[in-house]
Design a protein that fits this description.
single chain; alpha/beta; Rossmann fold; 9 helices
Length: 178
């Protein structure tokens, strides 16, 4: 991303490349858009758009069994779709790295996002996922690096939650003009 100063997505891209990520499962999300574009531009990375978030858990289990590392990029509203599938990495002792952009927190405009936003961390923890948060842009890459090491070295599911404060609040006017 020449010509501009690095942002947290640029730093996270580098961290994940250094961690050996070869597959990226996504449900398109504005919070992850720059990171997704970086992976799509990388011919060494396979990016798969999912129809629902839990498909990513199964896809990355298959990647691991095939000798590759992957990451699941989702929004907090999609975590609820993954709950049942999270038994797979837990029971089979497989790593799973998720990076979750949060909604329903600081500055949220959409009341529908609040319940799952507030329930994301407790739901993940109830399923045995190790959860780490990054609430400031400067700490996101470090949290992802630590999460990747933890997931792939201990064969455990790990979620790094990127707080809405770090992402910036969306507003209704911006959403309707896109």
């Amino acid at each position: 991303m020449a010509g501009s100063s690095p942002t947290w997505p640029d730093e996270v891209y580098r961290v994940l490349k250094d961690a050996g990520i070869q597959q990226v499962a996504i449900v398109p999300d504005a919070g992850h858009s720059r990171l997704i574009r970086a992976f799509e531009a990388d011919n060494d990375i396979q990016v798969v758009s999912l129809t629902t978030e839990e498909e990513g858990v199964a896809m990355l289990a298959g990647a691991w069994l095939g000798g590759q590392k992957g990451v699941l990029l989702i929004q907090s509203s999609g975590v609820g779709n993954c709950i049942n599938m999270l038994s797979l990495p837990q029971t089979c002792r497989m790593p799973l790295l998720m990076i979750v952009t949060m909604r329903g927190e600081w500055g949220e405009f959409n009341p529908w996002q609040v319940p799952m936003g507030q329930g994301t961390q407790p739901a993940l923890e109830a399923m045995g996922v190790i959860v780490r948060r990054a609430d400031e842009p400067d700490g996101i890459a470090r949290a992802v690096s630590g999460g990747a090491h933890l997931a792939f070295n201990t064969w455990r599911p790990v979620a790094v939650l990127i707080g809405q404060n770090a992402l910036g609040a969306k507003n209704f006017k911006e959403m309707t003009q896109k």
